[in-house]
Write a structure and sequence with these properties.
This protein has 8 helices and 7 strands; from the N terminus they run βαβαβααβααβαββα. It is α/β, with parallel strands linked by helices and 195 residues long. The protein has a 7-stranded parallel sheet, with helices on both faces. The termini are far apart.
Length: 195
């Protein structure tokens, strides 16, 4: 099995998450994408964070017509907080599965803030989905300082090996410039106007 992992708080899940999931499925010929809805991102505030159950329910509603996108509560089940620990657990429970961690550019640029980020790159390959030309992005990526990390610009669908210490870069010009943060801000503004 070839499985993509899209981790996050999904607060809320939105069409951008679905779009990058579909792009990853197509370009790396994956069998499925597992959304790991985390109970709490250690780099973000938990203030006003809906329950993991509520976020999973909303994610299920958004993906109900996409059978290859599977919403999971694995991080809650594993009692893991950090992506590194979650990947170690996934690999232990699914030893015959090849995994790729999928991110947008915000996480590609902030990867050095993640717990055990260098070790994480040694456990799983990465796919960063970008809106800008990948060549410049690789230059600014924290992963560039790791000599063992191989960077590949993904330009066509491929059965490429999903091996650690490999980072794939995929240009997706059609990605909406939306994020869960922007959605929450817009909702907050609307809520204030309705008061």
């Amino acid at each position: 099995m070839r499985i993509g992992i899209l981790g996050g708080t999904f607060n809320p899940a939105h069409n951008g998450h679905v779009h990058i999931s579909k792009a990853a499925l197509k370009m790396l010929k994956l069998d499925a994408i597992w959304w790991l809805v985390t109970p709490q991102n250690p780099l973000k505030s938990g203030h006003n964070l809906p329950s993991v159950e509520a976020r999973i329910k909303q994610s299920h509603e958004l993906t109900e017509h996409n059978p290859k996108i599977i919403v999971t509560d694995m991080e809650q089940h594993f009692a893991t907080t950090y992506s590194y620990d979650s990947i170690k657990q996934l690999k232990k429970h699914y030893p015959n599965t090849s995994f790729v961690w999928i991110t947008g550019m915000d996480n590609a640029n902030n990867l050095h803030l993640w717990h055990n980020w260098k070790e994480l790159l040694g456990e799983i390959c990465m796919l960063h989905i970008a809106r800008d030309e990948p060549i410049g992005l690789v230059k600014n990526s924290p992963a560039r300082i790791i000599a063992s990390q191989k960077h590949i610009n993904l330009t066509h669908a491929s059965n490429a090996e999903l091996i650690p210490n490999t980072t794939y870069w995929l240009l997706q010009e059609a990605v909406d410039d939306i994020s869960s943060t922007k959605i929450r801000e817009i909702t907050l503004i609307k809520d204030k106007k309705s008061i």
